Hints:
Residues 376-408 form the SWIM-type domain. It comes from Nicotiana tabacum. Keywords: DNA recombination, DNA-binding, Metal-binding, Transposition, Zinc, Zinc-finger. Pfam families: MULE, SWIM. By secondary structure, the chain is α+β, with helices and mostly antiparallel strands. It has five domains: 10-61; 64-212 and 288-333 and 440-456, no CATH class; 214-282, no CATH class; 337-419, no CATH class; 504-593. The chain is 45% helix and 11% strand. The protein is built from 24 helices and eleven strands. The chain has helices at residues 10-16, 18-23, 29-40, 46-61, 64-69, 71-81, 111-120, 166-180, 197-204, 214-223, 229-240, 244-257, 259-266, 290-298, 307-329, 339-352, 389-393, 398-407, 421-427, 504-516, 524-539, 544-554, 563-577, 585-593; strands at residues 86-92, 102-109, 124-131, 140-147, 153-161, 188-191, 209-212, 356-359, 364-368, 376-379, 384-385. The strands form two sheets. Strands 1-2-5-4-3-6-7 form a seven-stranded mixed sheet, sandwiched between helices. Helix 16 packs across helix 18 (398-407). It is globular, with a radius of gyration of 34 Å.
Amino acid sequence: MAHENRTITSSFIARRYLKEIGSNRDWKVAEFRDRVSVELRAQVTLSQAKRAKMKAIALIDGNIKDQYKIMWDYCNEIDRTNPGSTVCMKFIDNEIPNEPQRFQRIYICFASCKLGFRAGCRKIVGVDGCWLKGPMYGTQLLSAVGMDGNNNIFPVAYAIVEKESKDTWVWFLNHLAADLNIHETGWNFMSDKQKGLIEAFNEVFPHVNHRFCVRHLHNNFKRAGFGGITLKKALWAAAKATTRSKFNNCMEDILKLDPDAATWLNDKDPSEWSMSHFSSDAKCDTLLNNMCEVFNSMILDARDKPIVTLLEKLRYLLMARMLANREKAEKWNLGNVCPKIKDMLHKNQIAAAEYIPRKSNYWSYEILGATVTDNWAVDLQNKSCSCRKWSLTGVPCKHAIAAIWAKKDNILDYVHDCYKVEIYRRIYENSILPMNGPQLWPKSSKVPPLPPKIVRNSKRGRMQKLRRKEQDEVGASRTKMKRKQKSLDCSICHKPGHNKRTCKYNIVQEETTSSVRPKLHVTLEEDMMKRDMEKWNRSKWDSCAGILLLLLGLSNSIEEAEIGAIVAEIELEKATTKAAKKAPAKEILLCLNSY
């Protein structure tokens, strides 16, 4: 039996179970408490186990303030092991004279990420920012993510900044432009319109194309008062339209549904959210900023760690990812395309069987569909189709495949080079080289910076890790209910948004009833009538005779001479509501009380 032992403190437990906690940081406190109590045969409280776990994690990660003292050593180790990498820190002057500067920002871009992106990634970069947790609370992580030949993410650079603003984004984008040589036209960026990002792009990249995530656009669309599934489908149809004519037709449909919604969308540049106006330089037709969302979910476990531990986890994550993709690509056949592009071609080949090609010259074909409006022009020499899907993605569409079959050529010869296995291997041929531990880092002669001022978390309880999702987003959990709920209708006025207790019509009727004549003096009968009235609303009786019989059965105060007047009253109510089954029970009570 476990007993109290004062020598077993939280510090003793932390040192005793240091390795177990380090290998299982998600160990639940209650389970940890039970194991300690059984193995040590001592009574351990829940708070004691919680303190022990926190102390063990602090011993593993090191002191938070001490990690800022080795920031210069960490930068020197990156330069030594991965030459060509960009590591830049920025500091702010201390408010106390003759004191060391305080840490403000750090930007990191490894040499292998630079070379890999330049070797074969498309000219599209997603940028995003996410909050950091734990000891880094109040700061943010900015990231730039590209896309490889298999339509997977390729993290390029990241930075820890004090907040998300125009100044921090300008600082981040300037370093990114120098690393990726973003100085010519043809580049595309995808973002969620973060704070200060648009102003930063206008200053740093005025010549690039800037796309915005359509999911965030739809959220703003709903907040502007344009909700509903019909408008949502119309908005997405306009975003997915690949031709200008199809886009104009979709906008006309939105205009018919809601002119104000069409006016709201017309204020947005179509080149920012519709495929019909996208540039074909990026060879990417994505409408969502999923590149950065995937990266943010990958680093979720690292976002609550101290700064050096956080940076090391990010480095190890990139190193392991590049190794896994390099080993995976070695099993693919040369001269082929990446697996996800193979699947796209297979789907397009199935759809191409429904079209009939008509040859115009050596390179040009007219593709006939089932209807007159389903005819398309294909130019194999310029690798273009009038539907624009081939130009946007670099993958032959179903119309192009029908023309390629008619020409008896190999479909893979018409796929853009960025999807070839050779280019994919070239992206991941470089690797992030391993680093030593802090005890072997070269010591810097520079003055160590002070940690930034601590930002207190005003919220109580456990800090949130996952992003708050909108009502129409699909959650990852299949065991929890969604936030989206069915709209409830009022049983009095049959309108959504409230119930009968808060119905204004019900309140008016009760006031009118009390002012005209007091209610019938019944007790048990009144309760029975109330329950039966609710049954009428559910089953929606449409028989006036049934209503009268029930009224006569419940109330002895109604005389036969008054039945005619009640019938006329209910018939009038029936004509007003167009159906007796929709007549509210309170109104029938009002008719009864008026006699």
